[in-house]
Write a structure and sequence with these properties.
The structure holds three protein chains of three kinds.
Chain A: E1 7-13, H1 19-25, H2 30-37, E2 38-40, E3 57-63, E4 66-68, H3 69-81, E5 82-88, H4 90-94, H5 106-116, E6 134-139, E7 149-151, H6 158-170
Parallel strand pairs in A: 1-2, 1-3, 3-5, 5-7
Antiparallel strand pairs in A: 4-6
Chain B: E1 5-8, E2 11-14, H1 21-27, E3 51-54, E4 57-60, E5 71-73, H2 77-93, H3 108-115, E6 139-141, H4 151-158, E7 165-168, E8 175-178, E9 205-207
Parallel strand pairs in B: 1-5
Antiparallel strand pairs in B: 1-2, 3-4, 3-5, 6-9, 7-8
Chain C: H1 2-8, H2 16-27, H3 32-42, H4 46-55, E1 67-72, H5 75-79, H6 82-92, E2 106-111, E3 123-125, E4 128-130, H7 135-146, E5 165-167, H8 180-188, H9 190-200, H10 212-221, E6 227-233, H11 242-249, H12 251-265, E7 267-274, H13 282-294, E8 299-302, E9 307-315, H14 325-332, E10 356-360, H15 361-373, H16 375-379, E11 382-383, E12 386-387, E13 389-396, E14 402-407, H17 412-418, E15 424-429, E16 435-437, E17 456-461, H18 466-480, H19 486-503, H20 509-525, H21 529-533, H22 536-544, H23 546-550, H24 569-575, H25 588-591
Parallel strand pairs in C: 1-2, 5-14, 6-7, 6-10, 7-9, 13-17
Antiparallel strand pairs in C: 1-3, 3-4, 8-9, 11-12, 13-14, 15-16, 15-17
């Protein structure tokens, strides 16, 4: 039997709060077990900033929804380089907290913040090309790219992340079951 | 006396005259997913989550009278898939953001999502604009979560005798309204003690002045899935379907 | 004024539809105060009255202008250029569709098929039908509106609705005098007459084809405090207009059929539920009823036989779903037109929960014929399993659109030849909820045993894009879903969004799979026929006209749900940016 190749995992947070990444770290000592099974590619955990430099990734975990142009670029890069793309957490799955702005017109929001409120940007809406433009609405990632698996939760419990990843790595369809599958 | 039975997924289910397939199943301890059904009210048949295959044809089990010898399928991959899709439709139709909802952990929509393993909303979100109504001193109405089961409408009309709630609009624009020219709950005679304040399966009708009172871990569906609560949904005698029932 | 209306309707809540219509005709719209006043007048909760008013497209709870112009938006109107004409009208009025002009004068919008497919493009102006719109008529109409000319002073020829009877048979061709059939029926007696109807093997003409004799017998046997006869004249299936012609040319025959039904089942009251689009027929139908009363054919002691029966006409208000018999009954009771849970069926628990016969206009007319000529005579027409004749509403790409009555069993090819259709690539039979067939099926026959139909027969020649046809139908279903059940309420909108995505060039095979998935859920779980059949046009044409879809699909497996670059439009507008970073390539191939 040949030795199993390690899985490459990449992670990113788009329009999220990094809470899902914190929950990931909450698997605590199992991180050491996980490192026996996987290598990390681009992820804030390793500070590797470019995905796929050392070949394709097996699993991409995306936290957060899509709220601006840069999110779209990052998400597309992940989709292009990951065999399995996972929406991790409420925001990636359904837009979550950032999507609570969706019933408002973006123009009204920008106006309110930069024109009406005192002290910000001297009354002008920032137009530096370095800044990504916000989308009219925040979208869950499955509305922008094809997503293979969903791991809901705000954040998903550490045990759910562990169960999910170990299932995937072992070649099982991830099954969370009562207590681990949650939307809050 | 020989009791009459029908066959549900290989199990013989006894039923009383006038009981629906769903009532008989629940009475026998078999959980049936539902949102618009409530044991104290007549069947409604709108959420369609209780859809089963009855004698080979799909039908709403809450409105189909039980009959001896029926062959009923409920726990099949095809039917479970249909129910999952119905839940996903409800999830994208409204704004269901569980982390900020006081009903989280007590919500039947959420609990059924867990029960049926709904991992994502699948469809594209509608993100409707549904302003909340905070005009009532004791009750907040958050229409974002309304799934149009009409339980509050029925409770207010049939139990409270107040007719506080009704439906307006048609199709995807259908929405809950209250019985006031201003459209505000504060201008109705609604009270926190009304039956209508107790029946919402999701988080639309919420008491003010207290929130998140039950710690996570101790909420209604934290310890056990909704299917383990089947006792709570068993029919009470008076609620058998009656001729002429209509939505 | 409101008091008069309420009093005239005896402050009876079951007459709410008529109260709302008359109040709106008098006051222009249904203001919150008007709704409150009506609610207190009939003793209903205010919210319930608002619930009814808001359900129907033709009631408005906000002002829609002194002139409300609604363009019929069936695919046949589209093929005749309705959208260009509507746009021209909007431009001349400085108006966006759906919006009211700032001076409150006028609004312009689309509405579901108004039943003028043989003489489109058609409009309703303040719910009065005007067919055969042209650019010249648009220009003059805009002037008349600007000059605030009352409709009564508009050119009278605009309001002429052609019957376009191209082929008449035993029904449309009959020359019976009013009372002839009824006299025969009353002379024979209820038992014998029912036997005659059963002998005729008449089946319902609304599409479902239930045996009329069985229905009437079941209703007759059902116990109740009163029995009712209802004529379903809510001809809403896009592409259908034969009931309009029957009610224009043979109203006596229809009323006579209703009266015979009443005699058989023991009813004293009958209702015609006339679709709001046919509001213009109301006065003429009322006068026919009056003449029948004067002639002793209606009212007390009909033909001196001690039989009392009267008919009242109720107007609908723009809701296709009310063509479903239990939704129609709900509407007739003043409620939202939501189909009931069944069983029980209307024959035992119908109007006001009493035994009720609901039949199509054409069924009642045929029943009257049978009363006069006998069941065996009637059965001698048609095929062994489809007795009698069927009236087809023929529209679309043909030289002679109009109404064609054939004995059952006529082939599609024959109809196409008779109406002068050439190069036909598809025929949609029985409307969007029916079936779509291509040339290799043109030898199929109009009959219950082959292609059953409520009458619509829409023809598309090879110039037409079948995808556009289907997209129009799917939009129709999404607009007309009553919203009662989850699968139809949400599913029809999801289908509509998918069709729009494909139309915009962003569709993939993944989206086609989604359509099949939604079809399965609608078929399995929807509450009524509207939901069950809402994906029919998609499924039929994906099978028979798949290239119409495929040529619009991207080769990729997946495309975003929305236009990514357009989603940056508001931010671009607010920042004034237009650099490369302010845009997103929508297809992923270019994004790398």
């Amino acid at each position: 039997m040949t030795e199993a190749r390690k899985f490459r995992i990449a992670t990113a947070s788009l329009a999220g709060c990094f809470g899902c990444h914190m929950s990931f770290l909450d698997i605590d000592e199992k991180l050491l077990d996980l490192l026996q099974l996987v290598d990390f590619d681009r992820t804030p955990l390793t500070d590797i900033k470019t995905i796929g430099l050392r070949g394709p990734c097996d699993i991409g975990l995306i936290e957060g929804g899509v709220c601006n142009a840069e999110n779209v670029h990052v998400l597309r890069e992940f989709r292009a380089h990951c065999k399995i793309l996972v929406a991790m957490g409420a925001c990636a799955v359904n837009g979550g907290l950032p999507a609570q702005r969706n019933h408002l017109d973006l123009r009204d929001i920008l106006s309110e913040v930069y024109h009406t409120e005192a002290g910000l940007a001297h009354g002008g809406i920032p137009n530096d090309p370095e800044l990504p433009l916000p989308l009219n609405e925040v979208h869950p990632i499955h509305e922008v790219v094809k997503v293979d698996y969903f791991l809901p939760g705000c954040p998903p419990p550490a045990d759910a992340i562990w169960k999910f990843l170990t299932d995937l790595i072992a070649g099982r369809t991830p099954r969370l079951g009562h207590g681990l599958l949650r939307y809050d | 006396m020989n009791e009459q039975t029908f066959n549900l997924d290989g199990q013989e289910i006894p039923f009383a005259a006038g009981q629906s397939v769903m009532q008989a199943a629940l009475a026998a301890g078999v959980f049936v997913p539902h949102l618009c059904y409530h044991p104290e009210f007549r069947p409604h048949g709108s959420c369609k989550l209780c859809t089963m295959k009855i004698n080979g044809r799909p039908a709403t089990s809450c409105t189909t009278p039980a009959a001896a010898g029926m062959e009923v399928e409920s726990d099949t991959p095809e039917i479970l898939d249909t129910r999952r899709i119905l839940l996903q439709m409800l999830l994208v139709e409204g704004n269901h953001f569980c982390p900020s909802c006081e009903k989280s952990g007590h919500c039947k929509l959420q609990a059924l999502g867990y029960e049926l393993g709904v991992m994502s909303p699948h469809f594209n979100h509608f993100y409707p604009d549904r302003p909340v109504d905070a005009s009532h001193p004791d009750v907040l109405l958050d229409f974002n979560r309304c799934i149009l089961c009409e339980l509050c409408i029925r409770a207010s009309a049939e139990v409270d005798g107040k007719n506080v709630f009704a439906l307006s609009g048609r199709g995807i624009k259908k929405h809950l309204i209250v019985n006031a020219e201003s459209g505000k709950l504060g201008d109705t005679d609604f009270a926190l003690t009304d039956k209508a304040a107790q029946v919402c399966p999701v988080g639309v009708i919420l008491p003010k002045h207290k929130g998140f009172a039950v710690p996570i871990g101790q909420r209604r569906f934290d310890a056990e899935p909704i299917s383990a609560h089947v006792e709570e949904f068993k029919p009470i005698a008076a609620a058998a379907p009656r001729a002429g029932d209509k939505p | 004024m409101l008091t008069d209306i309420l009093d005239r309707h005896r402050r009876d809540g079951t007459r709410l539809m008529q109260i709302l219509r008359e109040a709106q005709e008098a006051l222009g719209w249904l203001s919150p105060a008007t709704i409150t006043a009506i609610a207190s007048g009939i003793g209903w909760p205010r919210a319930k009255v608002e619930g009814t008013a808001s359900f129907y497209s033709f009631f408005h709870t906000r002002p829609m202008g002194e002139y409300r112009v609604l363009w019929s938006d069936n695919i046949t109107d589209r093929m005749l250029g309705n959208l260009d004409l509507m746009q021209a009208m909007c431009q001349k009025l400085w108006l966006e569709p759906g919006r009211v002009s700032e001076d409150g004068l006028v609004s312009v919008d689309t509405t579901s098929c108004t039943g003028m497919c043989d003489q489109g493009p058609a409009v309703l102006v303040n719910y009065r039908a005007i067919p055969r719109m042209t650019r010249e008529r648009v220009e003059l109409m805009v002037e008349l509106i600007r000059a605030r000319k009352p409709l009564a002073d508009w050119p009278a020829d605009w309001f002429v609705i052609e019957d376009n009877i191209r082929r008449a048979d035993i029904l449309l061709g009959n020359r019976m005098a009013p009372g002839e059939a009824l006299g025969a029926a009353l002379a024979a007696g209820a038992d014998a007459m029912l036997a005659e109807i059963r002998t005729s093997q008449l089946r319902g003409r609304g599409g479902a084809g239930f045996a009329t004799g069985l229905k009437w017998e079941a209703c007759r046997q059902a116990r109740g405090t009163a029995h009712y006869v209802i004529c379903n004249a809510d001809e809403g299936e896009p592409g259908t207009f034969k009931d309009r012609v029957l009610l224009t040319r043979q109203p006596d025959l229809v009323f006579e059929g209703m009266t015979i039904a009443a005699h058989i089942i023991g009813a004293r009251r009958g209702y015609v539920y006339l679709r709001g689009e046919y509001r213009y027929l109301l006065e003429s139908l009322e006068s026919v009823l009056a003449a029948r009363r004067a002639a002793g054919l209606l009212g007390a002691d009909i033909l001196g036989k001690g039989f009392d029966f009267d008919i009242e006409i109720h107007l609908g208000a723009g809701a296709y779903v009310c063509g479903e018999e239990s939704a129609l009954i709900e509407s007739l009771e003043g409620k939202r037109g939501v189909p009931r849970n069944r069983p029980p069926y209307p024959v035992t628990h119908g109007f006001l929960n009493q035994p009720t016969v609901v039949n199509n206009v054409e069924t009642f007319a045929a029943a009257a014929l049978i009363a006069a000529r006998g069941g065996d005579w009637y059965r001698s027409f048609g095929t062994p399993r489809s007795a009698g004749t069927k009236i087809l509403s023929v529209s679309g790409d043909c030289a002679r659109p109009g109404v064609y009555e054939y004995p059952f069993g006529v082939s599609v090819r024959q109809v196409l030849a008779d109406c002068g259709a050439h190069d036909s690539q598809a025929v949609q039979i029985s409307g969007p909820s029916g079936i779509c067939i291509g040339p290799d099926e043109f030898d199929r026959r109009i009959a219950f045993e082959d292609i059953p139909t409520a009458g619509a027969f829409m023809i598309f020649d090879i110039r037409r894009d079948i995808f556009d046809v289907v997209r129009n139908f799917i939009h129709f279903f999404a607009h007309e879903s009553c919203g009662f059940c989850t699968p139809c309420r949400v599913g029809t909108t999801l289908l509509k969004n998918l069709m729009d995505k494909i139309a915009a060039g962003h569709g993939t095979r993944y989206d086609i799979d989604e359509i099949y998935q939604l079809n399965r859920v609608l078929r399995t779980a929807a509450h009524c026929g509207l939901g069950h059949t809402a994906a029919n046009p998609l499924v039929h044409t994906l099978e028979k006209f798949r290239p119409a879809y495929e040529r619009r699909l991207k080769s990729m497996e997946f495309e975003p749900a929305f236009d990514l670059d357009a989603a940056l439009s508001e931010a671009r507008q607010m920042t004034g940016r237009d650099d490369a970073g302010a845009h997103l390539a929508t297809d992923t191939e270019n994004a790398r």
